[in-house]
Amino acid sequence: MDDAELIELIDAIFLFHYPHLVKKLFDNPIITTEIPFSHCQTLILLRKFEILSISEIKNAMNIKKQNMTYIINRLEKKGLIQRLPDIKDRRLVKIKITNEGKEYINRWQIEAINNIKKNLSTLRKEDLELLLQSIKTIKLVLLKLS
Asked: What is the pLDDT of residues 56-93, one digit of tens each?
């Protein structure tokens, strides 16, 4: 499995939050000890879409608003995201990933790739392809439910 496929796998796992896979694949990654997985999941989502409202993020991650507010506050305090007023409706706030946030999640992703390579090294190529295809299929089905 090449790095591009591993990145796709990581994004799928974190955007759709498969906790059992996270535990098995990310066996003690160094970078992720700095912030929780839910924070990394938020950064991955923002890296993909650049700017989202808090509601869009919480809906995509399927978490409560108060939990999302806590995550946003922590990420903002670390300088990984920033709040921006919505141009069309000043009452709303958009969340944007900063350059620091992109650099952080890119570093984290390199560490995650190394951990996944180590943890998946016992599987045959066919099993790896089946895993990736299965996650893609689950992702497609879940998107239809939204």
From this structure: 999 888 889 899 999 999 999 999 999 999 888 888 89
Give the burial string for 26-64 (b: 16+ CB within 10 Å, else e): beebebbeebebbbbbbbbbbbeeeebebeebbebbebe
Neighbours of 136 (CB within 10 A): 13
- All residue ranges of the chain with pLDDT < 70 are 12-33, 146
Q: Where are the domains of the chain?
A: 3-145
Beta-sheet strands, E only, within 13-92: 51-53, 81-85
* Protein fold of 3-145: Arc Repressor Mutant, subunit A (1.10.10)
Q: Is the dihedral of CA 69, 7, 145, 52 positive or negative?
A: positive
Cα distance between residue 123 and residue 1, in whole Å: 11
Contact of 116 with 132, CB cutoff 8 Å: no
